[in-house]
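hi! just following up on the protien thing from before. the input was this:
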Amino acid sequence: MTQDQTNDYAFQARFVVDNAWRLQAVQDDNLLSPSHGCFHYAYWRDKTSEFADARFQEAGATLALLSLPQFDDARAAGRLAPAETLYQGFAAALKCLSRQQYPDGCYDEWYKGERGFAATEFTTIAYGLAARLLGDRLRPTEQAVLIPVMTRAGHWLARRHDRVKANHEAAAAAALALAWEVTGDDTLKNAARLALNDTLRRQQPEGWFPEVGGMDLGYCSVLLDYVMIYTMITGDQTGLPAMRRLFAFMRPYLHPDGTISPEMGLCLNPYVSRLGMGLLSAFDPDARAMVMTLRTRSPGIRGLTPYLADDLRFCRWSHLPLAALLLSERFGTAEPNAAPIPIGWTIHDQALVAAWHSDTIHVYFSPVGGGVVRVFRGCALIAEDIGVSLIDGGGGWGSVGYDSTRTLSRTDHGLEMESSLRPATFFYPSFMARLVLRLGCTFAWSSYLMRKAIDAYRLHAKTAINQSAAPVAKGKNDYGFTRRVEVTGDTVRITDILASRGAPIRRSALALAHSLGETRADGPSSAQSWRMVKTITGDGGATVEVSPA
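and the predicted 3d structure came back as:
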């Protein structure tokens, strides 16, 4: 393996370098165009969007970082455009961002007239980090554009909160700190501290922070990133104890290969921190141990797919792996001195997640997400069971979906969850819904009221809707579902009991009820309830036995 393949920080940075051409290809480079510098291809080129999503402009920060001398070797190898070309792409992107900004400092992201909190803070963070890392290579012409952009965005953020998602409050602290660094406006630094305090007050007893009324493991990483950016910029270490508690919660649920189970969260976000964890590693031995692991081993594509795979996310987040690499001298490098992960079950009842660890086997169980189970032997994923789904008579029912009200109990050798299968509704806004949204966001005050209504729905339904592919469980409770997970030595046994509250379940429908091995089914062609026993051995072998319960 090459160094890039064994060092995850180098692997992710190289991926960005080798795909920088994608960013250049989707940027409007016509000097005569009113959208010159825009990265939102669907807006400026295909005309399938009526407005430009400002989050695409974060790609400009990536081009700025790629213009630095640290990437000259890639240029010399023909893998990267000339530094001046990349810097000019950044300059055009910054000017375009300034044109997209509302006079009061905010931007649109998901819909026209949104005046979004996330769009304002994340663009501010991207360009603030670019300015910090460019240093004296940020030219006066671009500085003259950046300062008023950051000033307006900073003062807009300073007057607002987004408490529906804790990671947004944390990001506001980072954005305001960076705006202070760029502008020298001390009122922005004070506002950053207030945003941080607002975030820290909502930490749950188990260590995590609420996202849309629930827990999301991926957004724990996002929050960690931005609290640690705030800490780096300001030197204020107030948030360090909370971040250490957060990472202590996260650590048992990080897979040995550096990934996570997306079902351990409301938004199905499988992102794992690299930058925040690295910055924390200077203060926390557990984080330092994980960073040292990532410096010697990479999950490869599995590690970057959650936030770099498609053009939208690549534009948004591709500056982060570069920033992590450029700031890596701040990471802890001493011996880890990390406490070992406890052998046996680790359970967090409030978050409704669990994991089993031994010297050889690691089992990750997501009751909150419908009972998904993943089994690792060392760093190798050897088996996964993605809950239970039934399609019978034209209807579809599933166990997967966020529900923190499921019950979890201990057994002699493991854990047992009780749930149900319900029709899953996936959110797709209708034409009328889009029209109401468009008209309702004509003015700043009406946009504010629309956002309040959307957030109220998200909190009620416990779904991020436009930021998640997760189903929203609705409708009649048609099937009872019990799952027991037991670990004996290197053998994992999953026992499911599926019971109908109406018509009997046809045996043929059970083909979708598991994802492991070959099925051995006994009994009639249909029954009111079925038992499925799935046995996974340490070498990855699996058998499934199905019989009437």
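The mean pLDDT is 90.
The radius of gyration is 24 Å.
cheers
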